[in-house]
Specification:
Distance between the termini: 27 Å
Number of strands: 10
Strand content: 25-35%
Order of helices and strands: EHEEEEEEHEEEHH
Length: 201
């Protein structure tokens, strides 16, 4: 089920528009894959704040065994990940350094967990809930990986729903029982997060 779509958006800045288009595309993929699902719920474009903790999440997927945070990248063309973890983007045949989206998505996950720990009335509950991460690059984007190989947390945007399904199946295979988040808990959490969302003014 989809609990939150992206907020309405207006901007004349080309980079900001590109980011929003990438997020719209991911929202579409999640809606198409999980819009009628009883096992997976999704929220897009969350901005949360409490007591000095600010959490921004591009896309959040809830499932019986935990959550997945998806970070959207808007870089068109080629990307390169070097052996030392440095990310580069190709612009006009030149490689330009860019912040690591993997570090960004793990920072999102950390801030999000801090927000939950602060706001939820069951101390320690979310320490039992796994928060996985994915970085989604545009469908037509190409990535040059180091000799050590591709990173499992990075994929093209259209691959995200299948990555989520595979992750849920793997969780079900290694965890006994129905999971830590039943349907009612997921829906209550999704409704709480939607109500806590602070849109950009």
């Amino acid at each position: 089920m989809i609990f939150k779509e992206l907020d309405s958006f207006e901007s004349q800045n080309a980079d900001t528009l590109a980011i929003h288009r990438a997020q719209e595309q991911m929202t579409y993929y999640l809606r198409r894959a999980f819009g009628t699902s009883e096992d997976v719920d999704a929220l897009s474009g969350l901005r949360l704040s409490s007591g000095g903790i600010d959490a921004q999440v591009d896309h959040l997927v809830l499932h019986p065994y935990g959550m997945v945070i998806v970070d959207c990248q808007s870089v068109l063309g080629g990307l390169q990940v070097r052996y030392d973890g440095q990310w580069m983007r190709w612009r006009n045949s030149s490689a330009v350094a860019m912040p690591s989206p993997i570090e960004r998505v793990f920072a999102q996950a950390s801030a999000f967990k801090q927000f939950l720990d602060k706001k939820v009335k069951q101390p320690g509950f979310f320490s039992r809930v796994e928060i996985a991460v994915l970085v989604a690059v545009p469908d037509k984007g190409t990535i040059e990986w180091p000799s050590s190989g591709a990173l499992s947390v990075v994929c093209n945007a259209d691959q995200v729903p299948n990555r989520v399904r595979k992750h849920v199946e793997e969780c079900a295979g290694r965890m006994a029982g129905p999971g830590v988040l039943n349907l009612e808990q997921r829906h209550r959490l999704a409704e709480f997060l939607h109500a806590s969302h602070k849109p950009l003014s």
